[in-house]
Inverse folding.
C-alpha cells in the first residue's frame, strides 16, 4: 500500500508542478507569442495537452484497481507507452528541432503524424477496452491499425525529405 501512496503523491506533485508551469507560461504569454511562430505555439500547446493526459493516466495507476488493470491488460500499457513516446516525446522533439531551426515543419506533416498517432492510439486503447470489457474486435482490426501506423512514417518522410537540403549544407 505504501507504494500506491507514494506513487499517488508523486503523480499529484507532478500535476501541481505542471499546473504551476502552465500558469507561468500563460502569465508570460506575450513572451511566448513573440518568440514562437503560430505553428510552434500550436505544437507546444499540443505537447502540453498530451503531457497532461500522460500525467493523469500515471495518477490513475496509483490506485490498485487501475494498476492491476494496466498490468493485466497489456494494450493499456502499450497505449500508454505509445502516448508517451510517439506523442509527448516525439512531438516535443519536433517542436525543439523546429524552434532551433534544424528542421522546418509543415502543417501537412504535423497533420499526417497527428492523424497516425491518434488513429493508432484509438485502435490500441480500443483493443484494451475490448479485452477489459469483453467487447468484440471488429473485422479487419489489424489492417486498420496497420493503415493508421503507415501515416506516421509518411509524416516523417514529409518532415525529413524537405529538410535534406539543410543537412547537405551543414558542416560537421
Amino acid at each position: 500500500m505504501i507504494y500506491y501512496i507514494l506513487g499517488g503523491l508523486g503523480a499529484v506533485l507532478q500535476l501541481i508542478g505542471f499546473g504551476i508551469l502552465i500558469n507561468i507560461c500563460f502569465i508570460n504569454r506575450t513572451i511566448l507569442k513573440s518568440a514562437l511562430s503560430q505553428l510552434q505555439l500550436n505544437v507546444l500547446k499540443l505537447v502540453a495537452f498530451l503531457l497532461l493526459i500522460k500525467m493523469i493516466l500515471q495518477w490513475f495507476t496509483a490506485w490498485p484497481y487501475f494498476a492491476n488493470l494496466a498490468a493485466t491488460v497489456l494494450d493499456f500499457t502499450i497505449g500508454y507507452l505509445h502516448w508517451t513516446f510517439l506523442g509527448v516525446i516525439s512531438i516535443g522533439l519536433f517542436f525543439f528541432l523546429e524552434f532551433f531551426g534544424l528542421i522546418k515543419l509543415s502543417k501537412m506533416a504535423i497533420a499526417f503524424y497527428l492523424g497516425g498517432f491518434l488513429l493508432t492510439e484509438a485502435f490500441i486503447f480500443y483493443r484494451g477496452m475490448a479485452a477489459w470489457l469483453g467487447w468484440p474486435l471488429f473485422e479487419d482490426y489489424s489492417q486498420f491499425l496497420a493503415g493508421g501506423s503507415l501515416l506516421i512514417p509518411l509524416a516523417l518522410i514529409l518532415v525529413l525529405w524537405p529538410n535534406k537540403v539543410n543537412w547537405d549544407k551543414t558542416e560537421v
User: Anything to note?
Assistant: The radius of gyration is 19 Å. The chain has a mean pLDDT of 91. The CA atoms of residues 102 and 166 lie 8 Å apart. Helices lie at 2-27, 29-35, 38-60, 64-72, 74-99, 107-133, 141-169.
